[in-house]
């Protein structure tokens, strides 16, 4: 199934992290990919310790999109595409494994997906052309049953919405930022 967590409200990444923890607790395999995020955040420290969880993210922090140079845009786009290409390879290997592990009736013997893929903040590189949109389309339209996919971020594309089995919009009613409170470690990052 494909999940989409979007909207202006806080908690999209937290939902994805919670689901990744749940999958790790069930003994599943997870690829947790973060787009547009290169600086350390508290959830990454914990996720690194979970068995069966691989983290994929850009290796450095970048400024906000509207402050990026042409060179930074080219560099982050290549990094995003490399992450997505790796994920697609892993999904294909699961597809092959899935075909080999089906029982005689064509049913999987376990209800646990063989792979959970988290595309945290994927809506931004799609909106800003910082990723190969065709690759994203192929992933969404050709996802094997044995792979669960989570996407997060504001302003998802129509295609993301169309392919989603779950879609939750988080709305912001109030936020400490409005009172001048900056992001706090352990809460917002």
How much of the polypeptide forms β-strand, as a percent range?
15-25%
Q: Using the CA coordinates, give the radius of gyration.
A: 17 Å
**Low-pLDDT residue spans:** none
Overall SS class: alpha/beta
Helix content: 25-40%
Give a short account of the largest sheet.
6 strands, parallel
- Output the number of helix runs: 6
The shape is globular
Lateral arrangement of strands in the main beta sheet: 3-2-4-5-1-6
Order of helices and strands: EHEHEHEHHEHE
Map the helices and strands.
Elements: E1 2-6, H1 12-25, E2 30-34, H2 42-47, E3 53-57, H3 70-101, E4 115-120, H4 123-127, H5 133-141, E5 147-152, H6 158-163, E6 166-169
Parallel strand pairs: 1-5, 1-6, 2-3, 2-4, 4-5
Overview of the structural elements:
The chain has 189 residues and is an alpha/beta fold. It has helices at 12-25, 42-47, 70-101, 123-127, 133-141, 158-163; strands spanning 2-6, 30-34, 53-57, 115-120, 147-152, 166-169. It has a 6-stranded parallel sheet with strand order 3-2-4-5-1-6, with helices on both faces. The longest helix has 32 residues, at 70-101. The relative contact order is 0.24. The mean pLDDT is 92.
What are the key terms here?
six-stranded parallel β-sheet; alpha/beta; about 40% helix; about 190 residues; single chain; 6 helices
């Amino acid at each position: 199934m494909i999940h989409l967590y979007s909207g202006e409200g806080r908690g999209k990444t937290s939902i994805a992290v919670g689901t990744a923890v749940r999958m790790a607790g069930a003994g599943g395999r997870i690829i947790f990919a973060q787009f547009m995020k290169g600086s350390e955040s508290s959830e990454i420290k914990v996720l690194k310790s979970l068995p069966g969880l691989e983290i994929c993210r850009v290796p450095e922090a970048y400024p906000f999109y509207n402050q990026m140079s042409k060179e930074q845009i080219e560099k982050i786009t290549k990094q995003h595409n490399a992450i997505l290409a790796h994920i697609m390879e892993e999904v294909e290997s699961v597809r092959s494994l899935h075909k080999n592990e089906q029982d005689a009736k064509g049913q999987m013997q376990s209800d646990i997906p063989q792979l959970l893929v988290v595309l945290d903040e994927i809506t931004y590189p799609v909106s800003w052309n910082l990723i190969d949109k065709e690759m994203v389309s192929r992933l969404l339209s050709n996802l094997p049953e044995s792979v669960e996919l989570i996407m997060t971020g504001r302003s998802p594309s129509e295609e993301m919405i169309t392919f989603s089995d779950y879609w939750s919009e988080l709305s912001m009613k109030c936020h400490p930022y409005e009172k001048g409170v900056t992001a706090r470690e352990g809460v917002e990052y």
